[in-house]
Amino acid sequence: MYHRITPNPQSVYDRTPQRFRAELQRLARENYAPVTTAEYATGEMDVPAGKHPVVLTFDDAAESQFRLNSSGEPAEGTAVAILREVAAAHEDFRAVASLYITTPPFGGEHSGRKLRWLHQHGFELGNHTLDHPTLSARSSSEATHQIAEMQRRITREVPNAEVSTIALPHGVHPQPEKLARSGESEGVSYRHDAVLLVGARPAPSPFSGNFDPLNVPRIRSQGGSGSGSELGSTVWLDKLAADPARRYTSDGDPSVISHPADSTRTPAPGQEKRINAY
């Protein structure tokens, strides 16, 4: 989970361009392969054999994440530009991510053009609500309006975009919680395959019985020191490197779900026929 990419971090949610680049390079070295939240949530991940899927998510549609230069390309130093540079240097490290949109998107100016560029280049446009409120503090009708109206604005600019996942502002559900998954307001209906929380651990395999689409955890991008660092990305990547059996590792065949024959993990309902125990 990323927010601003800035040379002058103001909170634990910010990362410098240098540290962001270094983290992407580490992911590439350790055989992680980026997928979108939508691909993860539906299990439609065509990941090369031996690779580990990783979802890069960006909240708040900050201008430091993405803006276009005078040539119509991602501006140097932005998150999207850095991701594309790292991807170009590492085979199987796709330049894809899921960006969660609120208003104004990426600084506001030419926002439609920016959203269209992202969609055309394989980035997922997700919902982060219209005004970024704490949804539990709003009535059910206000909460559904916040979600539906943001979807309407995204699809108005990008008519063929499928807004199928949402990142909850502050990680807080509306009441009732199911309104984060689906709802309708003023003629706009929405349904999400995944509802993302703010923290603070790796998400389970979408083929696992532990997968809960209404409560998908994320790891905050953060170094190995400071407040909350024990839940941050550096610590978690160290843990997963030390215990690689905990990581989802692709068998290279999207039609099959492989796992060790002695595994005690329970598959999600409906996935039993795809299991390949080895």
TrEMBL record:
Residues 48-174 form the NodB homology domain. GO terms for molecular function: hydrolase activity, acting on carbon-nitrogen (but not peptide) bonds. The keyword Signal applies. The keyword Acetylation does not apply. Residues 245-278 are annotated as: Disordered. One of its GO terms (biological process) is carbohydrate metabolic process. SUPFAM superfamilies: Glycoside hydrolase/deacetylase. Keywords: Signal. This is NodB homology domain-containing protein. It comes from Actinopolyspora biskrensis.
